[in-house]
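Ligand: fe (ii) ion. Inputs:
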Amino acid sequence: MATFEQFTDILGRRRRFGHNLPDDRDILDKLREEHDLVKELLGKLVESENVAERLWLAQQVKAALVPHVRAEEKVVYDAVLALRDTDAMVDGHEGYLEHHHADLALKKLLSIKPATGPEFSAAAKVLKQLVEHHIDGEERNVWRDIRQHFDAEERVEMHRAFEAAKKRVRVPH
Ligand SMILES: [Fe+2]
Ligand SMILES: [Fe+2]
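Predicted complex:
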């Protein structure tokens, strides 16, 4: 079971990533950090057997995942879809579909009571598998498209747009 210090450490890093770093960063570096954080949270969620901890972690996953995917769709996937390159467009559409599946799996997870039961454990495992599979494909395929079509300066601009888009996302309760 993760300690309270580990939780506050995760939360602190999320806050630092979100608000305190300068804007002039490559979008892909930022996405990698957020992917790593979500994977870490999901790993802890699947391991956890404590109900308060599970609920806290599930909320942290939601808070990290929802703004990330919505802003990524607007800034990254829409840019890839606009390239009018068939392979890149497949990658963009695939990303949208997988985000939709992750949304549904997250919604299901958050609706399950009690959070101590086997149904919650199963939903946490499914969400973790979906997100890990999605991140693997995204980092391989979408990032290749981004590196191929956008130079370093454009990727810094994308990071600024990504941060601005995240601020506009409303995370549902
Ligand atoms: Fe992502
Ligand atoms: Fe994604």
